[in-house]
Predict the structure.
Amino acid sequence: MRRALPFAVCLLLAGCTTARRPAGGPPTPAPLPKAARATGPIASALQPSLMQLVGRVLAVDATTGTVIVDVYPFADFPPGPAGRQLVTRTADLKPTGRLETSAYQRGQILGTHLHDGQPQMGDEVVFPPASPP
């Protein structure tokens, strides 16, 4: 009995020191201090890109000026009339060429005409940046 008494006292004291949560659910987080809120250039860096991804260059034929593009399944690229402008860029976001869509689109394959530049296989294809509202 004497051996169990210190153990029981420890359990009792440990139970009394734990904090109880209010019955309303999980605790609400404390608001961020004003210095930690995103403002200025940091907030503008968190905006979505003005250049929407379309796909990747599959093949380039410089003699005929055609570029075949693999359109991403998640790209918002509705089929429609030819003549839309596109831009190709490398993985480090340097522009490599300008394209114009043709009437050829079969599934996720899009045919384009090369206007200028030298796009390479694997380059990203994006819409040109739109002017901000």
